[in-house]
Design brief:
This protein is of the alpha+beta class and 135 residues long. It has helices at 19-23, 110-128; strands at residues 8-14, 28-32, 42-49, 57-64, 76-81, 92-102. The protein has a single domain (8-128), classed as Riboflavin kinase-like (Elongation Factor Tu (Ef-tu), domain 3, Beta Barrel). This is riboflavin kinase.
Length: 135
């Protein structure tokens, strides 16, 4: 069996540590039912829908244990949904991975993490305007 043509997974929006807002990137923390469906840790450009709605939103997501923060020990999925400003708590979300951007890193300062995240979102918007590049 070859590669699946798409890589998708579902989850539910839960409350995170609320650091994202302070960092300037409010992220939706996603509780994933089936962790086996996740790709490897890293940062990805994704398309997101809120079933049963079918409208697609662009997003930049991070999968990993946020190594910049020693107090995070579990594997998390966090989504910065582009141009979106709504209350998503308890919403069901479906992600389709469009492109791999990079691995997870431990940054020495919050400024570095914020700068890198801004660059990720810019790269993600470009990737989403191009054909899919699956990992
Ligand atoms: C696009 C993007 C890239 C990220 N990259 C990293 C990373 O390389 N290293 C890291 O420790 N955390 C990374 N994060 C996770 C942030 O640490 C996390 O979103 C932030 O701490 C807010 O978490 P909270 O919503 O649980 O408060 C990334 C988050 C996003 C949205």
């Amino acid at each position: 069996m070859g590669h699946p043509s798409t890589l998708s997974f579902r989850g539910t929006v839960v409350h995170g540590d609320k650091r994202g807002r302070e960092l300037g990137f409010p992220t939706a923390n996603i509780s994933i039912a089936d962790h086996a469906a996740l790709p490897i840790d890293g940062v990805y450009a994704c398309w997101v829908t809120f079933p049963p709605a079918t409208e697609q939103h662009g997003a930049t997501i991070s999968i990993g244990d946020n190594p910049t923060f020693d107090d995070v020990t579990d594997r998390r999925v966090e989504a910065f949904i582009h141009d979106f400003d709504g209350d998503l708590y308890d919403a069901e979300v479906e992600f389709t991975v469009h492109a791999w951007l990079r691995g997870m890193f431990r940054y020495e300062s919050l400024v570095e993490l914020i700068e890198k995240t801004a660059a990720d979102v810019a790269a993600s918007r470009i990737a989403l305007a191009l054909p899919p590049q699956l990992p």
